[in-house]
Every structure is written in structure tokens, then in C-alpha cells.
């Protein structure tokens, strides 16, 4: 065959060009040892594993489009009169930042598209991170050895929020300016140092002349620089730890089953970048986000109704809207609790995500590596806590749009606000209880399926006239998959007296842990897995009942 | 956070699990191992594989055409032309064309690559071994020993003076960086306590730029005003209007419930700061019948007929009132600055 001939011909002469380039690079960079470990690296397959990819790719899209936007954007608050091609704003006074954003939108061909892709990608990036974190949380992928990577991801989420905020504040339009004003008001509420932080951040009184330039450097350099580093570290750790996988036949805690990076994931993941980019580009072409020309330039004494931040800041907005206006005046000072408490809850609410892996590993006392993912139902308390958190978040998101909810659904704004105030406390509890119940129900169903087989949908009439439904036994694969999960026993404090009969004092932390452990793994928090004895007793016996 | 006090048998691995005896082939829940590979139609039918190849190539070709379409749109479509596209309505033609062609060009590359991977690349699942993240005891011991050796050779443990002065120097040097931040802005001092208003300043209508007379303010209307002398072109306009913005309404004097409010008004005309005391949005929604004003940002509601006290929402205190009167020429004028800071509360407000 011709291919064979050509290979032999090549081997006699020079190596192919690609090989020679690779050899050259290897002599200087040692790429072969890197490739040896990674070129055929195995990645497991599950739809939920692509959520992280969505984040990575939207981040890359944001950087690409962001660089383009810096070529045209003027980060300056100098007041200029507008004489561009957008007629309704002719002759208006506005900052150069706003004017250059109008120019990008109306005078640079394709500028509007890139702006829209940039903004859409940011929205997708944050949403992607939110869902990706849910995936990691609910399947227990944050457990050892991945706690640090969870923290990296958490930081990316928080930094992403602030990068988004500083980004959409740059055009200096009426809506984003109002958001900045809100932020400044919140900063003022910080006890003792609030006014100083505000003066230093804005270079004087609000709004001052420095805000856009400073936010610009934070938005395009400081935060994305840190984020890029974190993304790289995040990916290195994903490679180093190897990806987690769900339990299944042949999949253990000591292996990873899937397909190789080259060629399958190179094509799938590489292709997925283009899919994400393509979808965002089409979105940008047909759905306008942040039409700054319709909002007008920022004036501190003007505002529009229905002012909303981008979605990822919505829950912070909700906290601020729902909080009663508590203010305490004493010794010539004011404690602005009405704004400061929401600010603090905002921080604590996020910190809870960062801390959770460490709390759970303390409760379980489990220091082993975990590479097999939990099905959410098999960790009912964790799943319940996660859903409770998401519920509180969503209620605050509703609170952040209480005016929109009120006008669109013809409700009283007061009623919506009160719903949010009460719901913030009640909703998570209800969600926790319901979620846990659903998880336990699903566990029971799994147990039932293992012991009695799956319902075949066939009704059989026995000779004596009785009708029964035929249950079909599960395959070995299914039996294994449904029983592969581990179940913890609640930790106990241990005997009250030690071996010598001397009274042992349990520390407060031990008592707390025993309590938490019972809540996590005690009776009523998990359904015992079917045992071999149960299975044998039922299957060996007489028919199915 | 140590696990020493948790007995080992509480960890699942030590429990007699359903998989305790993996060796037992008759164990009902045993791991059957990787299932055998199932062939796709493309693996066994060359014609199906050929069809897949053509689909992939078609998608890549569509992508090429879309890129040509992108360039053509860029060149051919006028950038302020709008088109009607159902159901989007009237949209910018260039943006629509560019977004669609770029999107299709990118999407088709992705779809082609994924289809290629799914139908034509080998889909045999293979297993890679995992290795524990933590080092073996030997490596661990070696690293510890190396570190101790290095530390010993550095004599840092023995020469305490060096160690302590070094720590001191390294701890102090970032202070320079902190000090450099000082000029980011001025100190707050009493800047938040004063506005441009002062005795005798006329109330100028924000829309007409004319000084207001009492007759200009009708019952049921909401008028925005700025202090005389503050012009839009002024450099400090944004900073000043952020504090001085004023809203003026006329209420029947009998309807004013607050005594001081009545005293500070003129014939029922009252002037309040427009800046919300919550986080500083401009208040702009006025309910004529009840004299309530609502901040559109966070829905704080104030009763202008009762000292602008808060009746709903997250604001913590009433809106500051500006004392007004009428000068000799019959124009409304301020009788001083606000007596308390306008806008959001802060630590030094008191």
C-alpha cells in the first residue's frame, strides 16, 4: 500500500516535519515527558462534567472580546458633548466613557456584537460557575483531595461577581451609575472606616472623576489577572487529581474509566469551545443585553424605575431591599445596621460555601481520598443543606427584583417584600426537610429495586386466580451500581468512663460533632443499604411478593 | 479538626460492607467489571461511517460559508440600517448578520468536531490507574530530612538575631505600599455634612433652569430643583448635585402633620432632599393623594406630609428637609443648608 511505502521512504530519509519540530521543542522544553503523562489521559464521561467547561470557555471568550473592547473604550470621566451617530442623544453632556461605549455600539462596525458577546459571555460565565458548583457540591466532588480546588473555584466565583460588577459599571450609564451609588452607600454603612473607604475608592466624594479609570484597571488587569492564575491552577489540579466518576461496573476509587484526551476529548472539548462561542455569538446577534443608549448617561440626581443589577448581584440587592431600616445612634455615631447587616450576610453567605468541605470532613472524620461521586440522594443531609442554600439565594434573587415581580404579576410591593423577609428564614428550612424526604424516598426505591427487581409492567394471573405484577431482577451491573455507595455510621462520643473507670470528659466540640454526625448519618437520615442476607432471603425463596 | 477521636470502625471502609468479599464470585452485588464494548453502527457499517464523514465535512463547509458571509455582511451592510426580523422586531441589521454568521461559523466547527468524536473516533472505554496523592512514607521522610538539613545549614535556628530582624524587616516593608495608598482620596472630614445650599440661594427649576416662584409649584406636582449658580457644565456639577438635589411639593398646610415641617415650609411648599437616606438613589416617584414618595431602587417610602418619615422599606431615617422662604423679589430661597447630612447614613453621622 502507498502509505506503507511512504513511511518506509520517510524512515530512510528525514523524519516528518511535525516530528522534527516536536523533537526540537522537547530538547528545550521536555514536552515529551509532559505528553507521556497527559496525551492519552483518560477522562470519564457524564453530561454534568461539561458545566465546568462552559465556564472555562466563556472565560476565554470574555478575555478575547475584552481585549478588543479596550482598543476602543476610553476609561475617562471627562465631560464631553455627544455628536455621534445616535440621534436621540445628540448634544447631551456625558462622560467620555459613556461616549466611547456609544461609539463602540454605533460607529465601530461589529463593535456592538463584540460588546454583546462580552456581556453575554459574562452572564453565562457566572451562571455556569453557579451550576458547576452545584454539580460539585451535590455529588460530593469537593471531598479530599479536592478541597483546595473547591476553594479555587469558590474564589473564581466571587472574583467573577466583582469583575462583572466593575465591568458593567464602566460605561457610566444611568443604570450602572445607580448601582455604583448603591455600592457607595453600602460602603458608607461600614462602621468606623466606611467614609474613609468611600473617599479613597472614589478619590473624594461620589461620584468624583476617578471611578471609571480605577474600576477599569481593576476590571481589565487586577481581577482578571488573579482569575487567570486561578483558572490555570484549577485546571492543573483537575489534571493532577484525575477526574471524579460516578460508581458503575468496573469503576472504582482507584481507577478512572473513560476515553483518552487524544483524540476523543481533544475533539469533544475543543469542539465544545466552538459550540459555546457559537451559541453566545448568536445570542449576541439576536438578544440585546444592557442597551446603554436607551438608559442615558449617569446623573446622580436621576434614576429609572426597575433598576436591576446583573443577575449574579441580584441576591445582594435582595438582601439590601428586604432588610428593615435599622439604625442605632449613640455617642455621636451611627451604626447603619439596615445596610451593614445585609453586607455582612452577603459575605457570610458566600463564606459558607467555601467552608463547607471542611465542615463535612470534620463531621465525618473521614480523611480518605474520594474519587467516586455520590448520587445526591445518598447524601440526604448534604443535599438538603445545598438545596436550602440555593432556596435562600433564590428567595433573595426574587427580593432583588421585588419591583419587577410586583409590576409584572400585579402584586403589592409590600407583600412581595414581606414574603421575602419571611421566606428567607422559612424557605430554607422547608426546602431542607422536603429535600431530605425526597432523598430518603429515592433511597427506599433503590433498595426496593435491588431486592425485588424492577416493575416489568406485566400482569400475570396465577392458576388460582390471583393477579401479580412480574418484577424483573436487575442485572449484575445495576445491582452493583445501586449498592456501591458507602454509608457512614454516626460518630459517638465514646464511653463516659475510660478503661480505668475514671470519668472522661467529652469536649464541647466532640459533643457538637457527635450531634452533627447523628443528624447527618443517624436513623432517619439514611436508609440502610440492602444487605446480602436480605437479598438472598428474598431471591432464594418462593416467588416475589 | 483531627480524626483521632473517631473510632476507625465508624468509617465505612472498616465496616462489613456489601462488597466485603469481592473475591466471592457468587456475591450478588459484586462489581462485574467493565462491560464489553458495544459497537456503533459506524464501527460495523462502512456506509454509515461514510455518512458520518460526510455530515462532519458538511458542517465544516457550512462554517466556511458562514465566515465568508460574515465578511460579506461586514463590508456590505450599512451599520445603521435596521431590519424587521420576526419575532425580534426591528433590530440592527449589521449586528444581526454578524452575530448570526459568526455564531453559525463557530457552532458548525464545534458540532462537526463533536459529531466526529462521537461517531468515528474509537469509543472504547479504558481505565487509568489512580495513584494516591500523598507521598509514600519514604519520600515523606526524605523531604522532611532534606528540609531539616537545609534549615540546619542556614543556621536560622541558631542565629536568632538574624531571624528576628529579618522577620521584622519583611513585616515592615509592605507598610510603604500601604502608605502610598493614602493619596487615593481626601479624608472625609465634614464633606458629607455640607451641600451647596446656603442662606439666600434661590431654588432653580431643574428643567427650565429658571428660579422658582411659589406660584410655579402647584398642589399635586413634583418639582426638582438645584441651587442657584450650579450649572450642568460646571466641573463639580456631578458631585454637587449628588448632594444638593431637591424635590419640592405643595401640600395644603392643614394636611402637614409635622410641626417643624410646617414651620420650614412656605405656604405649604416643602423642600426635601431628593437623595434617599438608604443608599443614595434619587427618589423620583410621587403619589399625589397621599404625599408619599417612593425610591425606585429599593422601594423605601417616605411620607412628605409627616416630616418625610419612613413608612416602608429599608431606609433608616427621614429625608432631610431644607428650610425655605421667599425673598423680596418673590422667589423661593433657601434659609440655610440642610441641618443634617443628606443621603445614606454613615458612622460619623450621629
Automatic annotation (TrEMBL), chain A:
Keyword Transmembrane helix among UniProt keywords: yes
This enzyme's EC code(s): 7.1.1.8
Domain of life: Bacteria
A single BP term in Gene Ontology: respiratory electron transport chain
Database matches in InterPro entries: Cyt_b/b6_N, Cytb/b6-like_sf, Di-haem_cyt_TM
Cofactor names: heme
Record's bilayer topology term: Multi-pass membrane protein
Cellular-component GO terms for this entry: plasma membrane
Keywords, in A-Z order: Cell membrane, Electron transport, Heme, Iron, Membrane, Metal-binding, Respiratory chain, Translocase, Transmembrane, Transmembrane helix, Transport
Chief location category: membrane
Sequence ranges assigned to domain Cytochrome b/b6 N-terminal region profile in this UniProt record: 21-247
Protein name as it appears in the record: Cytochrome bc1 complex cytochrome b subunit
Membrane-spanning residues: 49-73, 117-138, 150-170, 182-203, 215-240, 269-289, 335-359, 379-399, 411-434
One Pfam family here: Cytochrom_B_N_2
Molecular function terms, GO-annotated: metal ion binding; oxidoreductase activity; quinol-cytochrome-c reductase activity
Protein localization: Cell membrane
Chemical reaction(s) catalysed: a quinol + 2 Fe(III)-[cytochrome c](out) = a quinone + 2 Fe(II)-[cytochrome c](out) + 2 H(+)(out)
